[in-house]
Design goal:
heterodimer, A: alpha+beta, Cytochrome-c3 Hydrogenase, chain B, globular, B: alpha+beta, Alpha-Beta Plaits, 3-stranded antiparallel β-sheet, about 25% helix, elongated
């Protein structure tokens, strides 16, 4: 092997994060660079590890519900729904229709607010600062509905095992409808700002391409899988909480690049509005809580329930040993699994594309580390 | 041709800027001037805890049943009680609530059978010391004390 000369480029190992603003939390990525080209990446996670799964083993079923909100704190309502559905399946009860309709509305609002956070921060990473302010303005309205309904804005603890704790407040349906009416033109506005923008298009197209085969191999779900052209949505594939009653479409992309994922998420927000409108029009009357004993002691067994969270398939595996506390709670977080595809997407990309690729996965580190 | 003209005249950028400039009007201001202008939180807001007294007699509503302490996921509530020999009933002596560990999930409030413990709309919980975050019965019964700011 010849001695290296000054003409050879040397490989550079660069640490990105954990305090980097574009890693969306405390993700640390070790980049191996050749000039501006990325040769490989390695994710170092665990900076936000709180041992949520272990906490679950030391809490009763009701007590653990507020903790799951704190895994994916941007989409806490979806987390709560997944957990409640899992325990309900373990207990073999079903939430009453009224509770189910309200759950659908709140989780779809949550999908919108999660996508709004993604849109604002993702565009901020790429260089468009303006959308962040607009998206957070709309998110604030959704937060206000949460605050009025259950008393908290971010980590809501809105659902209880067996249904809902709180009855709807006066004018909830109307507020949801007003929000939908206000929100749809705003999505068009974001599109006007971003979709045609040549800087954004140039930074997104053919960046972080993940084909359908790659997605399946990595277990990637959610908008990333749909952007690769696979119309897989758990709301359609295995409907839960009464999703089969609502009409909506699954937006899909073609190339599976960052731009397609952007378009898919934008369209998903519109579809969520469609679901909210349908659900708000026909919230059935009736009880909001199923018959659930005060002390939850599920029979011995094991359940896995997965729902379509804003970021992908969110699953809860709960093993019960017949006592008041779960024997094991395993959370299948979409962000964690989707993050594994980072290396595949980043190889051969440029350094500047890394932030776009991390942004497009839409990770929340609270969920990655748990 | 149209595409070329759009490119030359930077139509995509102008379209985006139009949206930005549309929001320059002062009526679109959404910033709240926080201490001067206090946000009105919702009725169900879960904030600072309060131990309610009977408004007529001034006696505490709490029956020292300890259900809130049992419901709390963080076990941050400690209820001290004493059995009254004459009435044979439990009476509340001390009540501590560690707000530094509280995550305001509302489970204690739901568990309370007599509506004695309540999470109020007060959201200003900061204190200068860690000890200040642990509230005793007196503080809990006083209720929210909104911070006064001088300008």
């Amino acid at each position: 092997m010849a001695d290296p000369t000054f003409l050879d480029s040397t490989e550079l190992v660069l640490n990105m994060g954990p305090q980097h603003p574009s890693t969306h939390g405390v993700l640390r990525v070790i980049l191996k660079l050749d000039g501006e080209k990325v040769l490989g990446t390695e994710c170092v996670i665990g900076y936000l590890h709180r041992g949520v799964e272990k906490i679950g083993e030391n809490r009763t079923y009701q007590m653990f519900a507020p903790y799951v909100d704190r895994t994916d704190y941007v989409a806490s309502v979806s987390n709560g729904l997944g957990y409640c559905l899992a325990v309900e399946k373990l207990l073999n009860v079903e939430a009453p229709p009224r509770a189910q309709a309200v759950r659908v509305i709140l989780t779809e609002l949550n999908r919108i607010s999660s996508h709004l956070v993604w849109l604002g921060t993702h565009c901020l990473d790429i260089g468009a600062i303006t959308p962040l302010f607009y998206t957070f303005r709309e998110r604030e309205m959704i937060m206000d509905i949460y605050e009025k309904y259950c008393g908290a804005r971010l980590t809501t603890h809105a659902f209880r095992i067996g249904g809902l704790q709180y009855e709807l407040y006066e004018g909830f349906e109307q507020e949801c409808r007003d929000l939908c009416d206000w929100f749809l033109p705003r999505v068009d506005e974001y599109e006007q700002l971003l979709t045609g923008n040549r800087i954004l298009v140039a930074r997104m197209t053919n960046v972080g391409v993940l084909t359908a085969e790659d997605c399946k191999a990595y277990g990637v779900t959610g908008p990333m899988l749909r952007a690769a052209g696979v119309p897989w949505d758990l709301r359609k594939a295995q409907p839960y909480s009464g999703y089969e009653q609502y009409e909506f479409e699954i937006p899909t992309g073609k190339n599976g690049d960052t731009y397609d994922r952007y378009l898919v998420r934008m369209e998903e927000m519109r579809q969520s509005v469609r679901i909210i409108r349908q659900a708000a029009d026909r919230i059935p009357d009736g009880p909001i809580m199923a018959k659930v004993p005060k002390v939850i002691k599920p029979p011995v067994g094991e359940v896995y329930v997965s729902i379509e969270a804003p970021k992908g398939e969110l699953g809860y595996l709960i093993v019960s040993d017949g006592s008041t506390q779960p024997y094991r709670v395993r959370i299948r977080p979409p962000s964690f699994i989707n993050l594994q595809s980072l290396d595949k997407m980043a190889r051969g990309a440029l350094v500047a594309d890394i932030v776009a690729i991390i942004g497009t996965i839409d990770i929340v580190l609270g969920e990655v580390d748990r | 041709m149209r595409k070329l003209l759009r490119r030359i005249f930077l139509v995509d950028l102008v379209e985006g800027l139009l949206v930005t400039f549309r929001y320059q009007h002062p009526k679109y201001i959404t910033t709240e001037q926080y201490p001067a202008e206090r946000p009105k939180v919702a009725e169900r807001y879960r904030g600072a805890p309060r131990l309610n007294n009977n408004p007529e007699t001034g006696e505490t509503l709490c029956i020292a049943c300890n259900l809130c302490a049992l419901a709390c996921p963080e076990t941050l509530i400690v209820v001290g009680s004493e059995r009254n020999e004459q009435t044979r009933r439990k009476e509340l002596t001390t009540f501590t609530y560690d707000t530094s560990r509280c995550m305001f999930c509302g489970l204690c409030e739901d568990a309370c059978p007599v509506d004695a413990l309540e999470l109020t709309q007060d959201f200003e919980l900061a204190s200068y010391s860690r000890e200040g975050a642990i509230w005793d019965r007196e503080m809990l019964e006083d209720g929210p004390r909104p911070t006064k700011y001088k300008y």
